[in-house]
Amino acid sequence: MLQSLSAQTRLLVVAPHPDDETLATGLLIQHVLAAGGAVHVLLLSDGDNNPWPQRWLERRVRIGAVDRTRWAARRRRELGAAMRVLGLEEDTATALGWPDQGLTRRVQQELPASLTTLRAVLDTFSPTLVAMPELQDRHPDHSAAHVLMRLAMLGRHVAATTWLYRVHGAPLVEDDAFAVPVDAEMQARKCEALACHASQLALSAGRMARLAARAERYRPLAAACGRLPLPWHPSRPAWPYLTLTIADAVGGGVWPWSRAPWVRSGDGDYWLPPSPAQSGEPRFAKLQGRLPSPWIFDHWGWCELPH
User: Fold this and answer.
1) Nearest Cα to Cα of residue 290 among 252, 230, 238, 232
2) Coiled-coil regions in this chain (predicted)?
């Protein structure tokens, strides 16, 4: 796969939070630059909703709006330092400042405006290669970033190659996944870039080091195919506490599970009716709990529906 990298490569790295650019693509960025290509980092959120490291480092309990703004500025400075270590200038990044742990809500409530913003970045940079989270990443911001980018890339005159990465969850092991080659110098530079994200190392240094040490693997984007039911079978007692989100090129919608537009087959599977979107356009659904939880990672998650 890396044989295709050249001076004509224009890599867009989609990072839901500061540090994802290093953990997920720190080696790939170096390979593209070594080939003479260009790299741009699209930072979706500043990682401002990260209270426990902030409480620890700032010795405070309550985190207000002003405190979160200050933390966001710190994390963006850390991103700039990490980019310089990897060989990038700070002006090769676009920071959208969307809410940390709020990207799913953007799909649900602000989809058209969000897609307009993302398409402006795509049109300005014109990537030939996009590295972005895969749909099965367990962090809800990462999986929502996949949905937003897939829908934003619809209809572009020049389609970019898309490589998917996973930060949260088991490493990619699919047959079509591939690892980026690494040598000691490149890995050392990646670790140096990670050290710039000091706020994230305060309470999670071991976990972050393990993430940075594992192979940097990608899976080429492949469209869903076939007519498949929804992958979930929630028990009836759980119905009042679940919502279903559907997003496609036409828009997004959210329903309580009991009133969602599914139909049930005789064998107990759940199906969604066809979309008014054009045939071949991606369509996504997410099942999630309605009750607040201290656990930020997805239990049910997203699925891509057959086109």
Assistant:
1) 238
2) none
